[in-house]
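Weekly modeling sync, notes
Attendees: S.R. (lead), two postdocs, one rotation student

Agenda item 3: backlog of single-chain predictions. S.R. asked that every request posted to the team notebook include the full sequence so nobody has to chase files. The rotation student volunteered to paste the first one in as an example of the format we agreed on. Action items at the bottom.

Example entry:
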Amino acid sequence: MTFSRTEGHAFTVWVEPEGDCVELPQAQRAVFSFRGPDGMDAQLTHHPDRLVIWRPPDTEVWLSVDGDEFHQVAGFADIPAPGLDSSGAGLSVPIRDIVEDLFH
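Predicted structure, as returned to the notebook:
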């Protein structure tokens, strides 16, 4: 998934539930790579000033900004997201509901 800067329109791309973000136009281009069994099932939520990427369970998210090397920004195996990743703690409410209520 690639996002490029649009002249005169600043916005932020968030990766949830970890909350990592990239601000455009500070970055010229952001490329996200999803690695996992359901990597193609990422969902997007659009807001006037931001785009939120909801990663699938057990999926690593890697990011390259302006052509730099990729680095992992979400989906860490040693820090599973509660209520999302298979090795994460269970929650009584879906983690997406919690994150949306608090931050978006």
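Discussion: group reviewed the output briefly. The first strand starts at residue 2 and ends at 4.
Action items: rotation student to repeat for the remaining queue; S.R. to check formatting next week.
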